[in-house]
Amino acid sequence: MKNEKLKIIAGLFALMVLTGAMHLKAIAGDVSFTASADKTTIALGEQFNLQFTLSGAGTSSGTNFQLPDLSKFLILSGPNQSTSMQFINGSVSSSVSYGYVLQARETGKFTIGAASIEAGGKKYSTQPLTITVVKGSAQQKQSAANGAAQTPDNSVHIGDNLFLRAEVDRTHVYQGEQITVTFKVFTRVRITNYTINKLPNMIGFWSEDIAIPQQVNLVNETYKGKQYQVGVLKKTALFPTQPGTLEINPLEIICQVQVQQRRSNGKDWFDQFFNDPFFNSVQTSNVTITSEPVKVTVLPLPKNDAPRDFQGAVGKFSMDVALSKKNVKTNEPLSLKATISGTGNIKILEAPGLEVPNDFEKYDPKVTDNIDRTGPAIHGSKTFEWLLVPRYPGEKHIPPVDFSYFDPSQRKYVSLHSNPIDITVEKGSAEPEQFTGTISKEDVKLLNEDIRFIKTDPMAFHRRGEETLSSATVAVITVLPLLAFIGIVAFRQKSIRDSADVVSFRARKAMKVATKRLQQAKTLLTANNAEEFYTETSRALWQYVADKLSIDRAELSIDTVTQQLSEKNISPELVGRIKECLEICEFARFAPASASEEEKKKMYDLASEVIVATEKELN
């Protein structure tokens, strides 16, 4: 009967392997790396968007991104990185994009070469793009057809009627403190259009562009006793990355200026009459203007009283730490969120240190940025969310989460501390076996009373010299206790070794534990309990790899698993499938409602398939 059950289980796993392999084959090799532009024919000085996108099933990020030569264009912004993830047909489809805003420097046809990136151990390249740059826009061509002449820059004398200024809100700051630089155009002539010819090279700064209206709004302003129309062209938040005297380099723009062209001073009355300004013609000239460089003094942060957990945050922040629940069962996931809010360089904030009990599994935090770039100062929040899984019951304690920053307004370091968190972990229905490496005490049975009474009844006596037992019997009685003692000692030593070798025991029982969990997951699937189904399937996968590879639960992560599988000479194809299955499973736990019944079944088959394949190669 037992052999028949084993045959049935083996047949089911073989079917799972076949189904999962077909599904994995369908989604494998679906990674692509493409380049695209929102327009391929542009006017000289016109801006356009260039984007490189890495996408495919199971792709979360790429490494070693190589940008092609863009020297023929002016890079106005970038790289602007964005990611997206979808759960489609039982698999995770994700993409990462690198976006740039470019501006043409000259007319002609230009080829943007191939960009390259590495993902999943392979190198991918984009197809080249051809960008055609024409002279002037359609509106400018129409003006030229109507007789508006373009003149060289040196043919028009503007004087102090048109210039560009870079204004900063402060010139003495601490390292990491925000400086806001505003580039303004001051004009007393008519400007019909402008293009940015050269962006400032912000050496020694981390820069964040502040949002301004696309349409330049001119307002009246007095500068050095003269009235000008002033418009804001660009506003940038700068965060110094090093102490010393740093320089904000100039911004250069080309303005199309309309000026009146006077007729020649002829002596004839006809020329004198038409020399009146009313009859003067208007010409459009291209004028290049550049802002003056601005120097700022950056003070170093104090070193003497810097907290040990300080990671470079400068500004003014607050911290909120929240746990999803404080009463859980073993193997039941919970999340801990630490949200840091305030004013400063939100983008570079590092995760605060989080210590958890040794019997907790802690996964790398999910990071979410919420940055507001519309105000005078960069502000917002950054959330770090850890997924925690308790493995053993009891009263658990998470120490306070600490975060320190430097407050320039107070000129001192500020340390934030959350409250300690107590968690009650109850024993779950599918708790893994616990092994302490010690032997429990044996029960001792009292066979008779501790003190015996004096016998009062007559006893049988034998004559001296009369042998009552044979020599063989005496030898057996003498040797038998000694052999029994040796056997007991050997048995106890073996039990101690087996109990102490938790690693070996976990590895031997890994398949059995995983099979039990998968059976429970199948029951939940039949009961249409999506959330518990994904949770139980995830437990099966993570528990199996943790036990089989003897990975400490505090260090358990997808990267750790794939690295150790590779070190054990597991085939790269299987390592990739296991990694992909873990990613799919973890993502599906947070979006169970988005999957159909067929997708859930495929998920179950995939998990079963990779466990069986791994067991086969490891053994």
Notes on the protein architecture:
- This protein is an alpha+beta fold and 619 residues long.
- It folds into 4 domains: 143 residues, Four Helix Bundle (Hemerythrin (Met), subunit A); 109 residues, Immunoglobulin-like, CATH 2.60.40; 151 residues, Sandwich (Immunoglobulin-like); 112 residues, Immunoglobulin-like (Sandwich).
- The protein is 27% helix and 37% strand.
- The protein contains 9 helices and 32 strands.
- A hairpin with a 4-residue loop joins strand 30 and strand 31.
- Helix 5 packs antiparallel against helix 6 and helix 5 packs antiparallel against helix 9.
Topology, pairings included?
Elements: H1 2-27, E1 32-37, E2 41-43, E3 47-57, E4 63-66, E5 73-88, E6 91-104, E7 108-112, E8 116-119, E9 122-125, E10 129-134, H2 138-145, E11 150-151, E12 162-168, E13 172-174, E14 179-187, E15 190-198, E16 205-209, E17 219-223, E18 226-240, E19 244-248, E20 252-261, H3 269-274, E21 281-290, E22 294-299, E23 315-323, E24 327-329, E25 334-344, E26 360-362, E27 366-372, E28 379-390, E29 394-398, E30 402-407, E31 412-417, E32 421-426, H4 471-500, H5 502-526, H6 530-549, H7 558-567, H8 572-589, H9 597-618
Parallel strand pairs: 2-10, 11-21, 13-22, 24-32
Antiparallel strand pairs: 1-3, 3-6, 4-8, 5-6, 7-10, 8-9, 12-14, 14-18, 15-20, 16-18, 17-18, 19-22, 20-21, 23-25, 25-28, 26-28, 27-28, 29-32, 30-31
